[in-house]
Amino acid sequence: MTDRLAQPATPPSVRRILTLLVAACIVPIVLVLAVLMINFYRKEEARLIDNTLNHARHISTAADREVRSTQLALQVLAGSHLLQQRDLRAFHARISAVVDKLHVDSILLIDLDGRILLSSLRPYGSPLAQLRDSPLLQRTRNTGLPGVSGIFIGPLAGQPIVTIAVPVVENGKVVMSLNATVTPATLQPLLFEQPTPDSWRAGIVDQQYRIITRSHDMAKLAGQQLPAELRQPLSRVNESMFESYTLEGRRSLFVYQRSEQTGWTSILCIPHDELTAPLRHSLFWLITLSVITLALGISCALWLARRVTRSIQALIAPALAVGQAVPLPLPRLYFREARELAQALQIAARDLQRARADSSESEQRLALAARAAHLGIWTRDLRQQHIWVSQAWSELFGFNDSTALTLEDLLARVHPADRQHVQRTLDSTLFGATRYDMEFRIELPSGCQRWISSHGSVEFDRHQRPTLVRGVSLDITSRKQAELDLQQKQKEVTHLARVAMLGELSGALAHELNQPLTAILSNAQAAQRFLGQPAPDLAEVREILNDIVTEDQRAGAIIARLRALFGKHDAQRQRISAHSLIDSVLHLISNDLIHQRLTLRTELCAETLTLEADPVQLQQVLLNLLMNACDAQSQRLEHSNIIELRSAHVGHTLQLSISDSGGGIPADALEQIFTPFYTTKARGMGLGLSICRSIVDAHGGRLWAENNGHGGATFHLRLPLAEVSQP
């Protein structure tokens, strides 16, 4: 099953490829044209629908205009003095004279009980019917506003009509209703003010969706109510469109607009087949032309494929003859590329013959080079577990040329300490490794050891299974011995580096311990002077001894902190107040300042700032910087005797600045002064500022120096403040 799935499918023919190529070129073009046509159709359809909606709006506007003009005329008549005087005969004559001018079918005068008092359709005094149920009359009586009714069967004419009513008001009260009736035939011209195709249907329906007038079959359909499937979409919004079937049963697109004034709805119906006819016509011609074009293209492709196939098949025999080193006859070919291929086959035949000769010579050269470099070449067939080795390889591993080697024989020669590593590396070629490089020791039959460097690469079959491993082996015993000698030298150099580091640490201890030891000596001498007095002040001596103990403890703490600084473990940190840190340093250096007749001026931040740091290390930093400032002052004969110490809250850090008025620092040495063993002092060791910067860096801060504009230098120390603990 696996072999069957792994076999490649039959490649397609040139004829099939060209046919698919033609289809691939033509079909996308056809699809693009179809999309463009459909898009154009959609745009035209939208434009037509928009124009139709405007037409429906125009019909509604025309109907509203007719209703408003009729209402205005009726309002003028309703205000006639003839009605005020109840001269109905004269009023009948007047409405009969103006009824034709108002484009209405009749004018009625109705009292509030529904009795028709006058009608322009009947002579004055003729008996007239009484309206039994007139919603328009009730609405006019209740609101006192003009109105328009839906379509209904008139009691006098006996045909569908609509009524336009205005109230007749006396003394602020509605006493009668003056109405004008309009038949569907009178309203029908409104549908034709803008021309439409004869296949379209236009109409106006009232508030109850009964047909008031229609462009077709008006006499038969006037007054009928639309079916429910049309009433439901018409009732949703005032204007829109939907698809349904007309009363004649034709599928159409309904476009409608409802008047806010009358409540009537103007409807235009566009037959669906007229909407899609242009698209169907265009698609028909597109498909026809596409089929014709595709047929012509495939015919040309088949003809061209036949010519290409003949040319390719004619080259099969010359291609088979390439490896036989025989003259190649050139067949009849139809294409320039095929002729170029035939010439290339001729050239390939000559090159193959030349390559065979060169390959034989290269193999001989390779054998000579391998022999000269003492390279052992080997191959291992992973399927048959057969191992082939060159003569140089056999000599390298101490095997006889006639020995049939196995993998076990090879592993037996490997040093026991390296055997497992070699076995694991060789096994990796069976599980996907593409190459390997390893170094191992072998034990020769003579008892001596030899270092071997082996490099191999794996070949795979078409199923990506390893089949063959090729490689070379090289004697690297001399190189390995040289590496061992080099490692010994490196150990000696490392030992010397440790000795040098101990010397540097000793210098740093001497430099840092000088201050507390000097203080201990001064206090001890002072204690001797006090004790030499006839009546020594024991309290003063006790205070001096306490200072000696304090300085001794500080010296011990300095040694411990310096070890921590140069070691790999973290310093002992705690939360300390910036003010207490500065006070402790000022207390330690006060005697030196007095002795050198120097004044320390402080400008400290009023805020209480807290640091998380090693207090002893920061004391040493400040002491070193202050002592350096004292030394800078003493190097000038004429100088100020003031040293300034300032603290400030900068962002989320504490900045300490120590300024002197000495000779300053050369511009090119502002960074160099922090380098170990660099000093400008006659007796300096060049470790103080280096240790200070190391301490500051370990605390996540920054230490730098700059020259003052008025002389001297300022050292700035910036340290991060402790994080505020959340309650």
Automatic annotation (TrEMBL):
Source organism superkingdom: Bacteria
CDD domains from the UniProt entry: HisKA (cd00082), PAS (cd00130), PDC1_HK_sensor (cd18773), PDC2_HK_sensor (cd18774)
The keyword Nucleotide-binding is annotated on this UniProt entry: no
Domain Histidine kinase: 508-723
Coiled coil: 335-365
Membrane-spanning parts: 20-41, 283-305
Record's keyword annotation contains Cytoplasm: no
Domain PAC: 436-488
Catalytic reaction(s) noted: ATP + protein L-histidine = ADP + protein N-phospho-L-histidine
InterPro entries recorded: dCache_1, HATPase_C_sf, HATPase_dom, His_kinase_dom, HisK_dim/P_dom, HisK_dim/P_sf, PAC, PAS
Protein name: histidine kinase
